C-alpha cells in the first residue's frame, strides 16, 4: 500500500490510538457538574490530549502533535483517582481510534 493511501486511511505509521474512560460521578447539582467538567477538560488538555463524549463516559486521544501512550492512560487514571467525586473508574486499553474503538 502506498504511503499516501496509508496516511489517508490512518494505517501503520499514521495510526491514531486512544482509550475509553468510564466512571461513576457523585455530584450534588449542575453547578458542581460544570465545575468538574471544567477541571476535567483542563486536566486532559494540559497533557495535550483531546476528549470526546460525555462527562463520565468518553474517549481520549492525543492532539496531532504526538501519539497517545500508556503514560497518558496512567496520567488520566491518576488524575481521576485524586478526585473525591469519582468512583468505579474503568480505563480501556489503547485501541485504534479509527477502526478499533467500536469492536
From TrEMBL:
Gene Ontology CC entries for this record: cytosol
Pfam families named among the record's database cross-references: YggL_50S_bp
Matches recorded under InterPro entries: YggL_50S_bp (IPR007416)
Name by which UniProt lists this protein: YggL family protein
Amino acid at each position: 500500500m502506498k504511503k499516501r493511501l496509508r496516511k489517508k486511511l490512518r494505517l501503520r505509521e499514521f495510526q491514531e490510538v486512544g482509550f475509553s474512560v468510564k466512571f461513576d460521578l457523585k455530584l450534588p447539582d449542575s453547578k458542581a457538574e460544570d465545575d468538574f467538567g471544567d477541571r476535567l477538560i483542563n486536566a486532559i488538555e494540559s497533557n495535550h490530549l483531546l476528549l470526546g463524549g460525555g462527562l463520565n463516559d468518553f474517549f481520549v486521544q492525543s492532539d496531532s502533535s504526538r501519539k497517545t501512550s500508556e503514560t497518558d492512560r496512567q496520567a488520566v487514571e491518576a488524575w481521576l483517582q485524586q478526585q473525591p467525586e469519582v468512583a468505579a473508574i474503568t480505563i480501556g486499553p489503547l485501541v485504534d481510534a479509527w477502526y478499533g474503538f467500536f469492536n
